Amino acid sequence: MDQILKKSLEKIGIEITDRQKEQFDAYHKLLEEWNKVMNLTGITEYEEVVEKHYVDSLSIVKVMDMDKVDQVIDIGTGAGFPGLPLKIAFPHLKVTLLDSLNKRIKFLNAVIEELGLEDIHTIHGRAEDYAKDAAYREQYDLCVSRAVANLATLSEYCLPYVKVDGMFVPYKSGEIDEEVKESSKAVKILGGKIEDVVKFELPGTDIGRSFVKIHKVKNTTKKYPRKAGMPSKEPIR
Fold first, then answer.
1. Parallel, antiparallel, or unpaired for β 192-201 and 162-173?
2. Residue 119 in contact with residue 149, Cβ under 8 Å?
3. How much of the chain is helix, strand and coil, in % rounded to 5?
4. Of 17, 158, 182, 222, which residue is 20 to 30 A from 117 by alpha carbon distance?
């Protein structure tokens, strides 16, 4: 068990210190404990957490040089993926975790405290609301999300947070071509440009994954995002 994490991360070119390994292990323990009283994830077994949460979260190194990123926001972070693994692996990042469920925020705050992480904070609320707030709007070099919404909807949640010349990189399943095509109008209206779609299999699994690299090329107009609920009910087509 001791080597599983390090070996798995080496497959995607990430090396961690003993301290970082301790942090990942402590995160897993908290995930197991809290999962008994609230539904955070269906995956709690150590090896599976490593493969399907940690390695998955950190696979973004395939498309982004994380050393050149400063401010990151994770929209709909849930149990902290991908934002928390990114913070542990790349301690220089300033990370914001947003989720609409307060009990998840309580869990995330407990993890942050237990792991002694700095320059990371949580916000409880809806993506549509905080995107209107000047403290968050267009403040981030990188927005990430593993949320399951379709790409047009997700772009409306996420692109308003990205500064011009920053990136929005959603974590998607392997079969993505149709969804990318259907979202191209929304991405453009929101100030983004789809630059690349990178497909791969998670190491040691047959799980297909895709990263969509969306470059923010101009400011998002004030009318977006629309009010809460609209992006999912009526995606921009």
1. unpaired
2. no
3. 40, 20, 35
4. 158
pTM, full prediction: 0.96
Alpha helix positions (H), 116-176: 127-130, 151-158
Residue whose C-alpha is closest to residue 158's, from 79, 73, 64 = 73
**123 pLDDT band (50/70/90 cuts)?**
very high
The distance in angstroms from the start CA to the end CA of the chain is: 47
For 76-135, where are the E strands, in sequence order? 94-99, 120-124
Rounded to 5 degrees, φ, ψ at 173 are -75, 175
Longest dimension (CA), the chain: 50
List, for residues 129-149, the tens digit of each pLDDT value.
Answer: 999 999 999 999 999 999 989
In this structure, what token pair is assigned to residue 6? Answer: 């390090």
Q: Which residues of 5-20 are buried (b: 16+ CB within 10 A; e: fewer)?
A: bbebbeebebebeeeb
Per-residue pLDDT of 11-60, as tens digits, reads 999 999 999 999 999 999 999 999 999 999 999 999 999 999 999 999 99
Please, are residues 226 and 232 in contact by the beta-carbon 8 Å criterion?
Answer: no
State the DSSP code for 61. G
